[in-house]
Design goal:
With 190 residues, this protein is of the alpha/beta class. The chain has one domain: Rossmann fold. It is 24% helix and 31% strand. The protein has three helices and ten strands. The strands form two sheets. The protein has a six-stranded mixed β-sheet with strand order 5-4-3-6-7-8. Helix 2 links the parallel strand 3 and strand 4. It starts with a strand and ends with a strand. It binds guanosine-5'-monophosphate (5GP) and magnesium ion. Guanosine-5'-monophosphate binds next to strand 6, helix 3 and strand 9. Magnesium ion binds at residues 53, 56, 114-115, 122.
């Protein structure tokens, strides 16, 4: 499906890659996978803290925590704002904390939630940071993954969907601060 969103200027063509039904179904099955893993490791859900990475991760996090509720998982939720891109489309490799969490992580289990895994710098940075701050474990879930783009060793514990090596927007992901509101994942252009 192709669609046009009026942005001033220019109007940009979007090609839908995952529609909202596909997204909802995948979020439910991801929550089931996460629930199973937590139960297998005896991680009590009330000992779990979700760290949602802003800005891109906020839409996915909002859907995921409600799908986790259906799995009987009742985490606390906090946020960190990070930047590795600036206004550009390529990771600078340097992750900057723009807004930090004030939570104490000592002895707690964390689940880091991000929109997309590309170079891996963002996820590796947060995982190491939470471990340094005393987290007992730090699992990671990303809604999207671009294979073959990793510049660090990290792999996510849970992945929603794979996407090709194209710049995607929607469902929280932006292009120069636009398109976060789209209820689907789209590729900019054809
Ligand atoms: P990494 O640190 O793994 O290279 O990149 C992670 C961050 O880069 C994501 O959280 C996201 O903000 C941004 N990013 C990577 N690929 C894309 C993309 O295709 N579209 C958008 N909008 N952001 C991306
Ligand atoms: Mg991000």
């Amino acid at each position: 499906m192709q669609t046009q969103i009026k942005k001033d200027p220019p109007a940009q063509k979007l090609t839908v890659f995952y529609n909202s039904d596909e997204i909802s179904r995948r979020v439910v099955s991801l929550a089931q996978e996460i629930g199973e893993a937590l139960r297998a490791e005896n991680i009590a859900s009330d000992k779990l803290i979700i760290i949602s990475l802003l800005k891109g991760g906020f839409v996915f996090t909002a859907d995921l925590i409600r799908a986790l509720y259906a799995e009987g998982i009742h985490p606390q939720v906090d946020f960190m704002a990070l930047s590795s891109y600036g206004m550009g489309k390529k990771s600078s490799g340097k992750v900057e904390i723009i807004g930090d969490t004030r939570e104490n992580f000592k002895g707690r289990h964390a689940l880091i939630v991000d929109d997309i895994l590309e170079s891996g710098h963002t996820l590796a940075f947060v995982k190491n940071l939470l471990k340094k701050r005393g987290a007992k474990s730090a699992k990671t879930v990303v809604f999207l993954e671009k294979p073959g783009k990793r510049e660090t060793e990290i792999e996510a514990d849970f992945v929603g969907f794979m996407v090709p090596d194209k710049f995607v927007v929607g469902y929280g992901l932006d292009s120069a601060h636009n398109f976060r509101e789209l209820p689907f994942i789209a590729v900019l252009g054809d």
